[in-house]
Design goal:
By secondary structure, the chain is α+β, with helices and mostly antiparallel strands. 36% of the residues lie in helices and 13% in strands. The chain is built from 17 helices and 16 strands. It has helices at 3-17, 23-34, 74-92, 97-100, 118-137, 140-143, 178-182, 194-214, 270-277, 304-308, 320-330, 334-337, 357-366, 441-454, 459-472, 484-489, 492-507, and strands spanning 38-42, 55-61, 64-65, 69-71, 150-156, 165-171, 224-227, 234-236, 241-246, 292-294, 301-303, 317-318, 348-351, 385-387, 404-408, 415-417. It has a 7-stranded mixed beta sheet, with helices on both faces. Strands 1, 2, 3 and 4 form a 4-stranded antiparallel beta sheet that branches. It has a 3-stranded antiparallel beta sheet with strand order 11-10-12. Helix 13 links the parallel strand 13 (348-351) and strand 14 (385-387). Helix 8 packs parallel to helix 14 (441-454). The chain is globular, with a radius of gyration of 23 Å.
């Protein structure tokens, strides 16, 4: 394949990833460049949704058939089929032969100008937000004992928006004492890592936006819009994108054999940037992939297979790499919010130091790629862009737990959480004298209950949701009396896809997904 053709293909896929062109436009141009035949063929809809008028199409590119896609209009079904085809072409890697032959560490060319790389912008905005949070703590003693590891989720409300906004931030590392986790019943944060704290803060962000959406006077300012025709659930507005930043490489599979890699934090070159922005992955699938768990009160991980033999899982949480993998498949919104909204996926993941494409693309995406066509729509294996800033500063992991911080857009103060007990720290500016963090399971479940109670005036919506819940759990008379676990169990489409993922990982010998004790979720909330 000619070098010019390869470069042009990378540019096309960058346009596809950034949505500068529609999937169909990119696919048609791709086929034109390589003189490939392209056909769109219709066939009967094969899905789980009971919709009488659903169009289904698949593509045939150069005599190769690609997966079926569906929608309620013929044009959208074709567009969805083009998107699945482009994802499959990118995953195959067959159009990057010349670049694959050059090890990424040896790609040398002129250095990248500052902020040519969007990851630099994401890093800068995240760092600025972290500095503002530390200044607002106004307590040197606290600042000195919080973890140096942080993560943030940024977003844009539309494709026209130039600047990123910060949705939420999490600071922290490790998991709490096993004894504290054993007595949690939803009131303690068991996993104190920055990435998990950020995701739990993100749930609070979604509830805030859902409250805005539920008010007819403010609905137009929300990130959500009317129900999806495919799922019947509330969906994101077109153009809303979320981006994860972490200043360290997530523990677990993403850092497997990291000691064998050298010069990971050297400045990025222009060719490396071009390959990275194209969305091309080159996962190492012949080694690694193991599920792993964090150990209480330290930042080390062990293989999940080793822990499963001890039968004692108190205080042990799945690694950050494994958590990100699950969000790539079943979304960031979690099981309970999946009763209300479509799954929400990350558009990009920026890693601030020790970026390894081979390990991270395997850890975050390719361990699950085989189940993409088995997932119930609208769930799928997402393909977030995985990148790094131009200049990276290595972060030293603390050897023991330090305290954490969480903040969600709209909060007056950040909240400081105790690294050993998973509760609010005495010095936290947001101390509510209850000792329970606002990102604990009970606090977040309370927000769900409050959201539903606000919908009682909208009788039709409330009755639909209540009927849906009762159909999944007929023992309970109403939503208000169900436990946290019982409400989660009602999300049967989400749970089907989650179990499919976990069974697949076990089948591939990556290991078992370690579950927390049942009692952690066995609680109710009265509002």
């Amino acid at each position: 394949m000619a070098a010019g053709g390869t470069t042009l293909t990378l540019n096309l896929i960058h346009e596809y990833r950034s949505r500068h062109k529609t999937p169909m436009q990119v696919l048609m141009e791709f086929c034109s460049i390589h003189d490939y035949t392209l056909q769109f063929e219709s066939e009967p809809y094969q899905g789980v949704h009971n919709i009488s008028m659903m169009y289904a199409f698949f593509t045939i590119v150069n005599n190769t058939r690609y997966p079926q896609a569906s929608a309620t209009t013929e044009q959208q079904a074709k567009e969805n089929a083009a998107e699945l085809t482009m994802d499959s072409l990118i995953q195959s890697g067959q159009y990057y032969e010349e670049l694959i032959d050059i090890p990424p560490s040896t790609l040398l060319q002129s250095e990248v100008e500052e902020f040519d790389n969007e990851c630099d912008i994401i890093k800068k905005i995240s760092e600025q937000a972290i500095q503002e949070i530390k200044l607002s703590l106004d307590n040197v003693d606290i600042i000195n004992i919080i973890s140096p590891i942080y993560a943030a989720i940024l977003y844009k409300r539309s494709t026209e928006q130039l600047n990123f906004e910060v949705a939420c931030i999490g600071i922290g590392s490790g998991s709490i004492r096993a004894r504290a986790a054993c007595t949690s019943n939803g009131t303690r944060i068991i996993d104190m890592s920055a990435i998990v704290s950020t995701r739990r803060s993100f749930l609070r962000f979604l509830y805030k936006e859902l409250n805005v959406y539920s008010n007819p006077e403010t609905r137009d300012t929300s990130i959500f819009q009317n129900e999806s025709l495919q799922s019947g659930l509330i969906k994101l507005r077109n153009g809303v994108k979320f981006h994860l930043y972490t200043n360290v490489s997530p523990n677990g599979d993403a850092t497997y054999k990291i000691h064998e890699h050298h010069n990971l934090n050297m400045p990025l070159t222009s060719i490396q940037l071009e390959v990275m922005n194209s969305g091309y992955f080159y996962p190492e699938m012949n080694d690694g992939g193991h599920l792993s768990v964090k150990q209480p009160l330290c930042n080390g991980v062990i293989k999940a297979t080793e822990l499963s033999q001890t039968k004692n899982t108190n205080g042990h949480c799945m690694s950050d790499s494994d958590k990100i993998l699950s969000w790539t498949v079943i979304g960031l919104q979690g099981s309970i919010l999946s009763l209300i909204i479509d799954p929400i996926y990350l558009t990009s993941i920026t890693v601030g130091s020790n970026y390894i494409n081979e390990s991270m693309s395997r850890a975050f995406i390719y361990r699950a790629i085989d189940i993409n066509n088995l997932l119930h729509p609208p769930y799928h294996v997402a393909m977030p862009l995985i990148g790094r800033p131009t200049n990276c500063i290595p972060i030293i992991h603390p050897t023991h737990n330090l305290h954490g911080v969480n903040w969600t857009n709209g909060d007056i103060y950040p909240e400081v959480t105790h690294g050993e007990w998973g509760t609010i720290h005495n010095f936290s500016p947001s101390n509510n004298c209850i000792n329970e963090s606002r990102i604990s399971k009970t606090s977040i479940f309370t927000q769900f209950q409050q959201l539903i109670s606000n919908w009682i005036d909208d009788r039709e919506r409330y009755q639909i949701l209540n009927k849906y819940l009762l159909a999944s759990n007929s023992r309970q008379p109403s939503l208000e009396t169900m436990t946290y676990r019982e409400v989660k169990d009602c999300a049967y489409v989400y749970n089907f896809n989650k179990k499919l993922l976990q069974d697949h990982l076990l089948f591939k010998s990556y290991g078992p997904w370690i579950k927390k004790p049942f009692r952690v979720d066995d609680f109710t909330i009265t509002i």
